[in-house]
């Protein structure tokens, strides 16, 4: 399926059908997972990110457990997760919210740690592979290196040599040599260098 990208941000918000209904989301966790299964059937290596809201009014430990199960089942590559805060003018702003902030914070940290563990595992699985990247420009941490993004939206930093500036905007094959917490390190393949010569 050539028109399906290798990275997709597909917000789910929660993994409990009860909370999803209270949020008026219009889908269940099973329907969401069915979409993921269909995507992975045609693109097994697709990288997924999502949004999560922790501590929605009425969230129980069981509800939170269902969200953590969804996270475990899907295996996200990134997430944007937040503690619920009432927004004026929304239906949720008037809901009773009796979950202590400390509990919400602990749940948020648990969720983020689970996603982070998966992010590291996915990064480690890329070591030793060749990834096609789009070179975007100088690395943020080392101006003598370049950075690019893989087709699944992972940042790769690499030494581009003295003529590196000509690589910006190019698609390159890079051999991944190391996985860091939120990026990869690599080296340009011999074939890529020869193709650019």
Explain what this protein looks like in three dimensions.
With 197 residues, the chain is of the alpha/beta class. The protein is built from five helices and eight strands. The protein has helices spanning 17-22, 29-42, 61-74, 101-126, 190-196, and strands at 7-9, 47-54, 78-83, 130-138, 145-150, 155-159, 171-180, 183-188. The strands form two sheets. It has a five-stranded mixed barrel with strand order 4-5-6-8-7. Strands 1-2-3 form a three-stranded parallel sheet, covered by helices on one side. Strand 5 (145-150) and strand 6 (155-159) form a beta hairpin. Helix 3 runs parallel beside helix 4 (101-126). The longest helix has 26 residues, at 101-126. It is elongated. The mean pLDDT is 90.
Briefly characterize the structure:
The chain contains five helices and eight strands; from the N terminus they run E-H-H-E-H-E-H-E-E-E-E-E-H.
Specify the structural class.
alpha/beta
Taking the alpha carbons of the first and last residues, their distance comes to: 32 Å
Can you tell me the overall shape? Answer: elongated
The mean pLDDT is 90
Flag low-confidence runs.
none
What is the strand arrangement across the widest sheet?
4-5-6-8-7
Work out the strand percent: 25-35%
Rg computed from alpha carbons, rounded to a whole number of angstroms: 20 Å
Helix content: 25-40%
The ordered string of helix (H) and strand (E) elements is: EHHEHEHEEEEEH
Can you summarize the main beta sheet? Answer: 5 strands, mixed, barrel
What is the tally of beta strands?
8
Number of helices: 5
């Amino acid at each position: 399926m050539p028109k399906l990208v290798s990275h997709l941000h597909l917000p789910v918000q929660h993994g409990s059908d009860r909370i999803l209904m209270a949020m008026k989301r219009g889908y269940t966790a099973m329907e969401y997972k069915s979409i993921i299964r269909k995507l992975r059937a045609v693109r097994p290596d697709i990288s997924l990110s999502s949004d999560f809201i922790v501590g929605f009014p009425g969230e129980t430990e069981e509800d939170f457990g269902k969200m953590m199960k969804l996270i475990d089942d899907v295996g996200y590559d990134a997430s944007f997760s937040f503690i619920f805060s009432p927004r004026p003018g929304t239906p949720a702003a008037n809901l009773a919210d009796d979950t202590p902030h400390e509990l919400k914070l602990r749940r948020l940290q648990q969720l983020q740690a689970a996603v982070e563990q998966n992010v590291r595992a996915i990064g480690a699985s890329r070591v030793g592979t060749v990834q096609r990247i789009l070179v975007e420009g100088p690395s943020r941490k080392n101006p003598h290196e370049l950075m690019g993004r893989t087709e699944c939206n992972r940042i790769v930093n690499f030494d581009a040599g003295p003529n590196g500036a000509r690589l910006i905007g190019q698609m390159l094959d890079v051999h991944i040599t190391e996985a860091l917490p939120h990026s990869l390190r690599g080296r340009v393949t011999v074939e890529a260098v020869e193709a650019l010569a």
